[in-house]
Amino acid sequence: MYFKHFTVISNVLLAFIFLFGPTNSYSQECYDQYKQFSSKRSVQKLNYQEDQSGSYLWVNDILVTGEEVLYKTEDIIDSLMIEPYHLIKWRANGTRTLSLGEGFSGLVPFLLSQGIEVKGLDLWYHAMDDLPANNNTVRLMREYTRNYGKHLIQGSATDIPIEDNSIDIIMAHQLLNNLDERTSREVINEAIRVIRPIEGHIRLVGLKQHSIDYLQRLQTQGRIDVKFKSVSTNHYRLDGLKVLKNVYVEIKKR
Ligand SMILES: C[S@@+](CC[C@H](N)C(=O)[O-])C[C@H]1O[C@@H](n2cnc3c(N)ncnc32)[C@H](O)[C@@H]1O
Predict the structure, then answer these.
(1) Would you say the pTM of this structure is higher than 0.85?
(2) Is the distance from the beta carbon of residue 70 to the nearest atom of ligand 1 less than 6 Å?
(3) Could you tell me if the CB of 161 is within 6 A of ligand 1?
(4) What's 82's DSSP letter?
(5) How far away, in angstroms, is 148 Cα from ligand 1 center?
(6) Is 103 touching ligand 1 by the criterion CB < 6 Å?
(7) Cα of 175 to ligand 1 centre, how many Å?
């Protein structure tokens, strides 16, 4: 009798934890780190400019506007060389993925829709109150943080709030091309710190020559293995915005 009651109570308890508890340790870990980060740093500077093709918005002098104005989600998936068989493998293996400089791109929603564990990291998440309300890009940013907040980490890719060697795949689409040499190196070093050695890998698209040189140097030093492939630039409506060196780079830590 007691045993029966105990079983019923413990099942109810388990169901409660399953339904309302943290979805997994990855979510909880990221949420804790976001809370720490958001008290340390915030959006320092905003510029925006409207034209016929949409609103361009810069946070701390870095372009936020990307997808929907310059390219589409399919272009991001193509450029990052994500194939259907990767998705099957990542889902089956419980692969932990991270998108650096995710912005409000469709990459996080796409990977979630495929049942893949993903977090997006960007500078401005959860700092939406600092942004002007009547801007088209800000409207999309607000919508994005509302819909995907629990998968987003407010943070800098130069100081990723995640443990060493803990992520299977890191992706950054059109992040490094927005950064100066020193910051790009910091981002590359951080991605290498966080990625799992040997089995994990980093996929980067949109690099300046100095990042390519730096990666080659790290390869010569024996720290990483790098594969370079060129990516078609046809997708991008550049409109005077420079997207240099559209190469796809895949990096493995030794
Ligand atoms: C051009 S957008 C690209 C966004 C998205 N990956 C895409 O392809 O549409 C560049 C993004 O990088 C973010 N970003 C720039 N510097 C960053 C940093 N140090 N850490 C994290 N995100 C950063 C910007 O806020 C912006 O959202």
Answers:
(1) no
(2) no
(3) no
(4) -
(5) 16
(6) yes
(7) 5
CATH class of 24-253: alpha beta
Ligand 1 contacts CB of residue 67 (under 6 A): yes
Q: Which residues of the chain are modeled with pLDDT < 70? A: 1-46, 50-54, 130, 232-246
Q: Which of 207, 210, 152 is nearest to 178 (CA)?
A: 207
Task: Quote the CA–CA distance of 98 and 84 in Å, as a whole number.
Answer: 18
CA of 39 from ligand 1 middle (Å) equals: 20
Note the pLDDT tens digit of each residue in 149-167: 999 998 889 999 999 999 9
pLDDT of res. 134: 73
DSSP string, 137-185: HHHHHHHHHHHHGGGEEE--TTS-SS-TT-BSEEEEESSGGGS-HHHHH
Count Cβ atoms within 10 A of the Cβ of residue 10 and give its class: 0-12 exposed, 13-18 middle, 19 or more buried. Answer: exposed
Decide whether any atom of ligand 1 lies within 6 Å of the 64 Cβ. yes
Separation of alpha carbons 51 and 22, rounded Å: 42
75 in contact with ligand 1, CB cutoff 6 A: no
